[in-house]
Structure formats: structure tokens, C-alpha cells
Amino acid sequence: MAALLEASGIVRRFGALVANDHVDLVVAPAEIHALLGENGAGKSTLVKILYGLLQPLEGTLSWEGRPVTIASPAEARRLGIGMVFQHFSLFDALTVAENVALSLPASTPMATIEAEVAQLSRAYGLPLEPRREVWRLSVGERQRIEIVRALLQNPKLLILDEPTSVLTPQEADQLFVTLEALKAEGRSILYISHKLDEVRRLCDRATVLRLGKVVATADPRAETAASLARLMVGTEVKEARATAHATGAERLVVQGLSLPATDIHGTALKDVALTVRAGEIVGIAGIAGNGQDEFFAALSGEVTGDPGTISLDGRPIGSLGINARRRLGAAFVPEERLGHAAAPGFTLADNALLSGHATNGFVRRGLIDRSAVTAWFRRVVSAFDVRTSGPNPEARALSGGNLQKFVVGREILREPQLFVVAQPTWGVDAAAAATIRQALLDLAARGAAVLVISQDLDELFALADRLAVISEGRLSEARPTPSLDRETVGLMMGGIHGVAA
Amino acid sequence: MGMTEAILLTIITAATPLLIAALGELVVERSGVLNLGVEGMMIVGAATGFAAAILTGSTVIGILAGIGAGMILAAIFAALALGLAANQVATGLALTILGLGASGLIGSAFVGARRDALAKIDLPWLTDLPVVGKVLFGQDPLVYVSALLAVGVWWFLWKTRAGLVLRAVGESHGAAHALGYSVLKIRFLAVLFGGGCAGLAGAYLSLAYTPFWSPGMTAGRGWIALAIVVFASWLPLRAVIGAYLFGGVTVLQLHAQARGWGIPSQAMSALPYLATILVLVLISVRRRGDAQAPASLGTPFVPDR
């Protein structure tokens, strides 16, 4: 059968970086084709080229056997290519129907659009209310808008960029049912992911990218997760391993913690209680926007409250600021590494100073001790193998994985008694992720209390001794991880958003 | 003519230029662009409009010249802030300084010149109704234009597809770009519209409100128009309320001075500006409701991403 879409010899550079280096890709009609690769492998660049958002510097595209140039997304849609973005291209202040209308010809009346949205959402099991504003919707619902929006164009090829990275396992299952239905209608799907289990379960063929090059085209069902991982990463990835150790006294105790939402899109915390013992890693699972940011802010001292709601080693710290908590032996790494954990335009040494000025002896009589800062920064860089382009680059010049190793390392080397980290390996390459996870396990083994807030269930199951789920600002009881399975946790994550049975 | 009627009439003429300029800026900000140069565009519109009217003897040509002058300044802003993605705040401030200077140059030959104010309409019977007659049916044509403009902007933003696209661009330019809309083109047109409105508001000042040219005659009305946009939470019909409120404050201080309330006249003249500051403070303190600033407001869009 002739290929639906064929890309050959695609080259795209950004400055010195070759994002796509002579990439070939063939998508057959009515197949689910996986595009596999780590962050930074060039998947997104390739997809943007296919959807007309970027132009290739070299190489050709052909569609149903005819050579084509795709100059714009409108042209891609005209050919029959639909796209569902990883970071949804939705307008929060507009309604579902308005969002859909924006991707349709201007002549379609609103009433028709609302009717079609309702019809499509019934036909493919994608429940949606056309008149709701997007910011009121869950992430899963937002994704459905994107899919419905793409389906209204009646595409022959639907591109999905990391579609399950933000979904609960149940929402993901629901999505797979929809995708199988689309395939049965003869549509093709280009499925971008780095989740190997999903790819093996869903996809007919896989093209694997590494550092901008195609390294393999494989039948994912004939491969194992380990063999696919090896293709993707290039080397064996070491599994993080815990060393056996005892847990000690209660270090972090949170009780009766309630906080109003700080802004209109925020979530209020409702009577949160949690205990983390010395030597223990406790994981907090949950879908983004269920109160994780607020909980982190309350723990780190960015938002203060009643003294008794949070205590560290028996001392009430709920009303103390960030530096006071740091002086008591706590350390924090927020989710957003560029902009929250690190100032993008500051050098790494200055960023080390920013989080360590209160605790690391960097400041004497109001003056900065440069040699102490430099010595510390060098220690972090070497202990955590942070690869930098120069001796002391700006934070924004680092890759995600290297910057994450730096911001985690800078706190862990202080040997904190309590370590709170959000999304420790989000968007980080496999090798850096393994380094960070091992460091967390080792820190706990040395007697620290570690709290990991993450949306990545695999990560939590690999790290946490006990696991709690946050949903709508309420935190469940933390239960020993071995007593839980993914399905149960997934259902708890869904909370009252409800998951269609 | 009763006191109430007199006050109402002066409020309307004081509010009209504020409303026109605010509606223009509202459309600009809905598209995600913050043009702080309203004052500059307004005063160039006032100088050019007056000069053109004196030279040609036609008020209509004066008004059109004012609109055109505002649009030319807006085009300069667009070239810098959109074309070159320059900082919008700095570019807008520069535009105001440029406008103040350029207007002095354009108007220098016309200082002291006088002409009749834009004629008020006079409908037989209707205009002669007691109290409401002059207020409703005896205004100059631009007052009615400003009312139509308010309804028109509302209708455009909420009832047409083009308006939806414009709001979408202001909400998330990245997403609009991904859908294939030309962010810069839409913003350019919005900025031009805003410039035209500011120019018209300026021409109203020099051709209808006080029919002469004097340097600096806009006296901060461009800034008040900007405050009205925030006060109105980017909703055109609320901008009408805002403009009339600020127009009312302006008139109040004139009447207070005339009646000798014993408050220094300088303090009274400062009232509209104090009200502006107060409103801006109250708005930023108030808990954010459902009507919020366009999410992309003031962030430059650089397409290659």
C-alpha cells in the first residue's frame, strides 16, 4: 500500500544545534505510528515541520504519493493533517465552541459548530460542554477539545504530541479507545511519546529518534520495553536502587493545613495532613492543578500560615519564611526549574548564591564571599555531573537535564533534614533522571525525610515508600506503595472529576 | 437652560473624547498589544485636525486629517513594537513624547487661530423638548459617532468571527499562530484602529470641545483613556460608564471652581488624575473576577518558534 505521508532527508538546524539530521519517516494509511525519542531528540521539530509550523532546510515531503510543501498549518489541514499539541493551543478565556470555531472557516455559524461538537463528542466518547470556558475544564477535557477540533477537519492523519503525559491512567485508556476507533475508520495516527508501554500497546510501527537522527524503525510489539529504551537512549539506563535502611522519628508533620486559593485558577488546600519520617520518601501523586503548587508553597514558606500546621522535628514552622526554614535544615526544589528554581539570566554561581545565602556561609558582614560561592558551585557541578558549555554559564544556557541536576544537587549537597521536591525529573533525559532519583534515594538512606510531588506515577512507584494522592486540594492518607496499584492511584487522582466507567 | 441640563451637556462633551480614545485602546489591548502612546496620538490628531480644518476650511477634512495623523503615529508604533518586537511600554512612552513634540511643530503656525466649533445638530421639535431635548437630540455628530462606536466595538468583539480571532490573538498569540492566524497582521490592524480613534478623539478636542489649538491641550486625557480601559475590564460597554464617570469628575471640578468651594483650584484640577490613580489602585487590589486582562497583553510576539 502506498504511504500516506513520507518525509525523507529532513534537515532542520537551530543555530549550531541540528534538531533534525536527515530524518526519514513513512506513515502508512490506517496505522498508528509511534515517534519515539527522548526530550531533545528532535520529535517536536519534526512534527512542527509536518504540520507546517517550521520549514525544513533540506529534504522532501510527499502526501499520498505526491510531493508537497507544507507552508502553513492551514495548508497542512487542507491536505488532511490534524494536530493535537502537547501544550494545548487553547484559549483559556474563550468557550469550548469558540475555541473550535477558531480552527474552522469563518463562514461556519456558531450554532452549527456547537451542534457538531456535541455530535462528535458523542460519536467518539469525548464528552464536552460547548459553552464552558476552557479555564474551568480539567486537563483531560482540554485535550478532548483539541481532538474534537482536529477531527472536525476530517483528517486522514492525526498527530498527537505526548498525549498521555497529563492524563490519569483511566483517561489514557479512554483516549486509546478513541484512537483505535479512528484507526478503524481508516485514519492514520502519528503518536509521539517516550512512554514505551503505551507505544507497545497501541502502535503498529515505531520510528525511533536519537539526537536528531533516526536510529531505528521497529515493530514495537516485537520489541521489549528494554530494547526500545536502549534504542532511544543509546546505552543501558541504570535503574535507581534503594539501599535498605530503617526509618526513624517523624520529621515533617503537617496537620490541619488549609489555604485559600491565591488566584482564580488556583486550588484551595483543604485540611491537609501528612507525616514524613526520617529515612523515608513519601510521594504525592496527582494531576496538575489539584493543589500541588499551593502545597509546595506552604511547605517551602513562600506562603506562610498558622505556626502549628507544619512542624519540622517537633518545631512549629508554619509561620516561618523560606530562609528560616532553610536554617532549620529544610531544602526545596520547585517544579519550574527556569524561572522559579533558577533565575534564567543569572550564572550558575549566582544561582547557587540565591538559594544558599542564608545557610551556606556565602555572605559575611553583608558582603558576598565569592570564593566560597565558587567553591560550592564547583562542588555541585562535579558531584552531580552537570555538563556546562563554559566555566560558569547562565542558567538558561543549560539543557533541562543538566539544570535540573544543578538545582537538585545544590540543595542535596547541603545534607538537608527535610527535602521537598516537585517534579524532580519532568522533561529530563533518562540518564539525568536516573542520577537525580538515585540521589533522592541516597539522601533518604542517610536519614533525611524526602517528599516528592510528581505527576509521573512510574517515578513515584520507583521512589516512594508511601504514597498519597492530592485531588481538588485534599490529600489522601499516605499508604505504603507496595499495597497500591496504578489503577487505584489513577482512580484517586481522578477525584471528583470522575472517570467514565 | 437649567443647571442639571447644563452639567449634563458639559459631561457629554467632556466624556466623548475619552470614550473614543478608550474604545480604540480597548481594541488594541484586546489584541494583546499595550500602546501607552494614546496621549501622543491624541495630541497629534488635535494639532493636525485643527491645522487641516483651518487650511481647507472644512471641519470634515479636519476630522479625517486628525484620524489619519493618529494612524500614522500608530503605524510607527506598530513598526517598532510589532515589526521589531521592541518593548511595548518603552515604545508607547516614546510615542507620547514624540507626539507632544510633533504636535507643537504642526500646530505652531496655528496658535491663536480660531474657528467655530463643530455644529450641534438641531432637529425641529425634538431638540426643543424640555431637559432631554438638547441632551439627547442636540449634540454634535461626533457624540453620536462615539455611542455608535461603543456598540460597534461590542458587536465586533462578541458577535463576529473577526472579533473572536482578535480576542484569541490577545489571549494566546502562540496558540493563534499555531492555528494559522497572522498574529502580527491582526495586531497591526488593531493598533491602526486604536491610532485612528485616538486621532479622532484629539480632533474632537480641537474642533468641537475647545475650537482652537494650544500646545499640550490634551492635558493627560490619553492617560485617562488608558485608565478607563482597565476600569472597564476590557469591556466596551463598561468603557462608556468609565468615560462618563471621568467626564463627570472633570466637569465637577470646573463647576466647583466656578462656585468657589474654597478648595484651591489646583487641587480641583488634579481631581480627574487623582481619580485615575484611585481607580487603578482599586482595580489591582480587587480580587480578580472573570473579566481579566487579555493573557498575552504586552508580550511581544516573535513568530519563529
Q: Please, could you describe this protein's structure?
A:
The complex is a heterodimer of chains A (501) and B (305). Chain A has 501 residues and is α/β, with parallel strands linked by helices. Chain A folds into two domains: 5-233, Rossmann fold (3-Layer(aba) Sandwich), CATH 3.40.50; 250-497, P-loop containing nucleotide triphosphate hydrolases (Rossmann fold), CATH 3.40.50.300. Chain A contains 16 helices and 23 strands. In chain A, strands 13, 16, 19, 20, 21, 22 and 23 form a seven-stranded mixed sheet that branches. Chain A has a six-stranded mixed sheet with strand order 6-7-8-3-9-10, with helices on both faces. Chain A starts with a strand and ends in a 7-residue tail after the last helix. Chain B contains 13 helices and no strands. Chain B has 305 residues and is mainly alpha-helical. In chain B, helix 6 (141-159) runs antiparallel to helix 11 and helix 10 (221-231) runs parallel beside helix 13. At the A-B interface, helix 2 of A face helix 7 and helix 8 of B.
Set down the secondary structure blueprint:
The complex is a heterodimer of chains A (501) and B (305).
Chain A: E1 5-14, E2 17-27, E3 32-36, H1 43-50, E4 58-63, E5 66-68, H2 73-79, E6 81-84, H3 96-101, H4 110-123, H5 139-151, E7 157-161, H6 169-184, E8 188-193, H7 196-202, E9 205-210, E10 213-218, H8 225-233, E11 250-259, E12 269-277, E13 281-285, H9 292-300, E14 310-312, E15 315-316, H10 322-327, E16 330-333, H11 348-356, E17 363-364, E18 367-368, H12 370-383, H13 400-412, E19 418-422, H14 430-445, E20 449-453, H15 457-463, E21 466-471, E22 474-475, E23 479-480, H16 486-494
Parallel strand pairs in A: 3-8, 3-9, 6-7, 7-8, 13-20, 13-21, 16-19, 19-20
Antiparallel strand pairs in A: 1-2, 1-4, 4-5, 9-10, 11-12, 11-14, 14-15, 17-18, 21-22, 21-23
Helix pairs in contact in A: 11-12, 11-13, 12-13, 13-14
Chain B: H1 3-30, H2 38-56, H3 59-83, H4 88-107, H5 132-137, H6 141-159, H7 161-171, H8 173-178, H9 183-209, H10 221-231, H11 236-259, H12 265-269, H13 271-285
Helix pairs in contact in B: 1-6, 1-9, 1-10, 1-11, 2-3, 2-4, 2-9, 2-10, 3-4, 3-9, 6-7, 6-11, 10-11, 10-13, 11-13
